[in-house]
Design brief:
about 240 residues; alpha/beta; 6-stranded mixed β-sheet; 3-stranded antiparallel β-sheet; about 35% helix
Length: about 240
């Protein structure tokens, strides 16, 4: 049974203040002890998501939505608190990172699929379908360093959405190219979210959110401000003038 549990989670990043100093002040600090400042990105986050739930995350830019997804995925370990994620996780954010630039499209499909938890046998079974969905044709035979940004996204999206995860963590899907691909991408994403036991969807598209999520969490400056039915939370967010 898939579930996500966070209890009193705090996440902080320490920034070296010297990086933004003038030469003179940096020299003075060199003679003293280095100073640092701490940026609190998540503060006292507690939530529980059970199997069968579709949960939206909303908030202004920099509110902590993507950071929270990365904590759920185990990418960022918190300084304090408990994070428990049970189930095979498929993180769908920053999908264009992690390419082997000198490898071709087919080789990158295999590498990414392995990282997402597919077995070699499962990859062999799905390889042709992934390549066909990417609609990259003969470009799959050349190194991805020759691809455009849109082609990178197509390849990554086609591979990442071919898995059958228990938990989908989705940051708002970026433009994937032409209109025809966007339509097929939307259909594929809908299917992925329906197959998953849990889906968490961070987005700015308040009109799209109710189609996917019954429950929504509002985040502001790294804190949970509200958690409840999507329609109610969206109205609250819109009324505040932030939406």
């Amino acid at each position: 049974m898939a579930r996500i549990v966070l209890k009193n989670v705090d996440l902080e990043f320490r920034v070296d203040a010297m990086k933004h100093d003038t030469f003179r002040s940096a020299f003075v600090r060199f003679l003293r002890r280095p100073t640092h400042r701490t940026i609190k990105t998540l503060q006292s986050i507690s939530l529980r998501i059970e199997s069968g739930e579709r949960v939206g995350l909303i908030g202004h830019n920099g509110a902590g939505k993507t950071t929270l997804l990365k904590v759920m995925a185990g990418i960022y370990p918190p300084q304090r608190g408990l994070v428990l994620t049970e189930g095979h996780v498929c993180p769908l954010f920053e999908v264009v990172t992690g390419f082997e630039w000198d490898a071709n499209g087919w080789e990158n499909i295999r590498t990414r699929a392995l990282l997402l938890g597919m077995s070699p046998r499962e990859i062999d079974r799905r390889l042709e379908g992934i390549g066909e969905f990417s609609n990259l044709g003969e470009f799959l035979d050349i190194p991805v360093r020759h691809y455009s940004a849109g082609m990178h996204l197509r390849l990554a999206f086609a591979t990442s959405t071919a898995v059958d995860p228990e938990i989908v963590l989705l940051d708002e899907v970026m433009a994937a190219g032409d209109v025809s691909f966007m339509e097929s991408a939307r259909t594929r994403m809908n299917g992925l979210m329906e197959r998953a036991s849990i889906a968490v969807f961070a987005t700015h598209s308040l009109d799209v959110l109710p189609r996917f999520c019954d429950r929504t969490i509002l985040i502001d400056h790294g804190r949970i401000i509200a958690d409840g039915p999507t329609g109610e939370i969206v109205r609250m967010y819109t009324k505040s003038g932030a939406g």
